Amino acid sequence: MKNSSLAEKAYKAIKKDILTCELDPGSQVAQSQLVERYDFGVTPIREALKRLEHEGYLHSIPRFGYMIGSITINDVQDLYDIRLMMESFAVRMAIQRATKDQLADIQHRANFTYTFKDRESYLNFLEQNIAFHVLIAHTAGNRKLADMLAGVLNEMTRIFNLGLDLRDSAEEMCNEHIALANALSQRDAEQAVKIITEQITISRQRVLEMLIPRIGQRYIDRIIF
């Protein structure tokens, strides 16, 4: 039981550092380095790494250790394209199908923010952000859409973290969510689609601005604009 508990703590600690990019995307780490870094012992770290590898956050390297999953320009472009298609459709359907109480709930949940350069705050904000956007998809009356959007947004957590570090956009992002909730409440489909499109476009630009210098020259030939 003790080892199981330590493995769970090790898993959460390493996953947090992967999601916040404290462990750099594409970087190589040895198990011994992680044992020293997190001080959980060999067995809990090994079990945590197996679990994280199964989830796709890292990959084992024979005779060395592990590589943290990389983030490429292709990844960013593909995920943002998918997100834009899903969320544009979701807000249109939510306006048609959501009840007055559901729209009021979206407005109630729109006011959330983060503290710039505070990694713990970033994770809390991103959890609320995913919940907010998935809630809109749920009110669209399409469970499959909501599940698929949740998967895309969860996959984008590391990407979002990179964007948050570029500059303090906390107030701007909070206002964007409130504006979207207000457009939904007023059942203004064109305004809602305009707002979500602008949000996603700005987020994409912010992430690319941070990502291109960070990933290095080896990925430049994979840029797709």
Q: Could you please describe the fold and organization of this structure?
A:
Helix 2 crosses helix 3 (42-54). This protein has two domains: 2-68, Winged helix-like DNA-binding domain superfamily/Winged helix DNA-binding domain (Arc Repressor Mutant, subunit A, Orthogonal Bundle), CATH 1.10.10.10; 73-222, Four Helix Bundle (Hemerythrin (Met), subunit A), CATH 1.20.120. The N and C termini lie far apart (50 Å). The protein is mainly alpha-helical and 225 residues long. The chain contains ten helices and three strands. Strand 2 and strand 3 (65-68) form a beta hairpin. The chain has helices at 2-19, 31-38, 42-54, 73-97, 100-108, 119-139, 143-155, 157-164, 170-185, 189-215, and strands at residues 28-29, 58-61, 65-68. It is elongated and about 60 Å long. Strands 1-3-2 form a three-stranded antiparallel beta sheet.
Radius of gyration, CA atoms, in whole angstroms: 19 Å
Order of neighbouring strands in the sheet with most strands: 1-3-2
Shape: elongated
Give the count of structural domains: 2
Catalogue the unreliable spans: 217-225
Q: What level of helicity do the residues show?
A: over 70%
CATH superfamily of the largest domain: GntR ligand-binding domain-like
Terminus-to-terminus distance: 50 Å
Please describe the biggest sheet, giving its number of strands, its sense, and whether it closes into a barrel. Answer: 3 strands, antiparallel
CATH topology of the largest domain: Four Helix Bundle (Hemerythrin (Met), subunit A)
Count of strand segments: 3
The average pLDDT score comes to 90
Q: CATH class of the largest domain, anyone?
A: Mainly Alpha
| Helix count from the secondary structure assignment | 10
